[in-house]
Write a structure and sequence with these properties.
Length: about 250
């Protein structure tokens, strides 16, 4: 859906990350990892898992690429000490189990109702994700009318030159909805989401349904912390007050 050029600019637009924010990707990721580790008899210590977590976070940034996931998995397998041949086996196993699990991925309880309320108040909505637009469509296949009913704009990594924590996606959404970035509200579950919001001068809202806790989100720049997107409508008055404060007397 496209913004109506004849309509007045909204007071704010709400932009959502997808994985860990609208959908329970953490459950899928954890189950995939467990299945792959069991299938390949891989042993991972807490220290190694922490190291891999730091590495993956560092790689999910910067220039967009459709091969980024394969590159990350290859390097994860390498860091786990797998041989050259076993790395291919690891990537194939991850892909197979991931595809088997994705049809069962769940939208978090209360998300449709929250988005419906946000849109009924006149605020446009967008998804801006590190997933590609094709992957977003695939993950939402179980919920056929979700994107058309609750989302006005979908932006994947293939739509932006630089992925989060760069602000590119938020700036594109602001342009699409004809608002300055200061009137954008970005909601996500990870440090990079908060960093992208701050880089765009958007309001940063962290939710606790994903990979990062309140401490990490706050340290990364979150200005609001919510248990989940379901609680977003109740926080809108406070968020809008900050939007107006940041926009200033000129509205920008």
């Amino acid at each position: 859906m496209c913004a109506d050029l004849a309509a007045p600019s909204p007071a704010a637009c709400f932009i959502f990350d997808l994985d860990g924010t609208l959908q329970d990707f953490v459950a899928v990721f954890n189950e995939m990892s467990q299945r792959v580790n069991e299938e390949l008899a891989l042993q991972t210590s807490p220290e190694k898992l922490a190291e891999l977590d730091t590495f993956i976070r560092s790689q999910m940034q910067g220039q967009s690429s459709k091969y980024i996931i394969v590159k990350i998995l290859w390097n994860v397998a390498k860091r786990m000490g797998l041989s050259w041949r076993r790395r291919f086996t690891y990537i194939n196993a991850c892909n197979r189990h991931y595809r088997a699990l994705i049809p069962d991925i769940q939208i978090f309880p209360g998300v449709p109702e929250a988005l419906d309320e946000i849109r009924n108040q006149g605020f446009p909505t967008a998804i801006q994700s590190s997933a590609s637009t094709e992957e977003i469509q695939h993950r939402m296949a179980k919920y056929q009318d979700f994107l058309t009913k609750y989302i006005d704009l979908v932006l994947g990594r293939d739509n932006v030159p630089q992925m989060k924590p760069a602000p590119d996606g938020i700036l594109l959404a602001a342009e699409h909805f004809h608002v300055p970035p200061t009137r954008c509200v970005y909601i996500g579950d990870m440090e990079t989401d908060m960093q992208a919001a701050r880089a765009a001068r958007a309001v940063a809202v962290g939710v606790l349904t994903g990979f990062d806790n309140a401490e990490r989100l706050t340290a990364a720049g979150a200005e609001f912390i919510l248990p989940s997107v379901a609680e977003l409508p109740a926080a809108v008055p406070g968020i809008l007050a900050l939007v107006e404060e940041r926009a200033g007397p000129t509205g920008n």
